[in-house]
Amino acid sequence: MTSLNGKVALVTGGGRGIGAAIALRLAAEGAEVALTYERDADSAATVARRIEAAGRRALVLAADSADPRAVRAAVDGTVAELGRLDILVNNAAVFLVGQVDELGAEEVDRTLAVNVRAPYLAAQAAARHLGEGGRIISIGSNVARRAPFPGLALYSMSKTALVGLTKGLGRELGPRGITVNLVNPGPTDTDSNPADGPNAGAIAGLTALGRYAAPAEIAAVVAHLAGPDAGYLTGAVVDVDGGFAI
Fold this sequence. Notes:
By secondary structure, the protein is an alpha/beta fold. It has a single domain (8-240), classed as 3-Layer(aba) Sandwich (Rossmann fold). Helix content is 41%, strand content 14%. A seven-stranded parallel sheet has the order 3-2-1-4-5-6-7, with helices on both faces.
């Protein structure tokens, strides 16, 4: 798989879960990959070693996506160290759950800073470096389409905002040959949401396929959007949710 040979990608929150799967898949497709992490340096380093074992360069960047300076520095640092930027994947997110009378301004500010402001600022910084064929791909959530349980209003709101960001940026950057798309994963088997967790059966039952996704299944769609075969696809919202939103 070499569809991304010569390309450089930045994956925010690329040290674990879906982000790690995306970083590894882009590297398998030929890209050099930078990834950010906030707390788990060991996991990020493990992903980087696997990228390098595949013969690609890897760059690990500590960055709290709630910090605007860190977001911009991650983009500029990728270009400085790896020489260019072709693909931005906005994956880093926080998942704060609570009913509307339980979450205060601090939780709202943190959620919007990481899940909404950071993708906007990262795209803004990346747009200065992306050329013809550039890609911006954000990772949303199935609960932007359907909120099946109480306590999801804040998170759902933050992920729904990415629809507007995707469509607005798609229109703005299209004349430059840069595509902008959004992937909404459904329930996915990660450390933070394991497929054998206490509520997993009920959650899986909300999908048409009756199961969780593997992180690699989400990463495969991102890799397609990042590649040359998706050059005419922009402003799209792609639900990779096993039929959750049907």
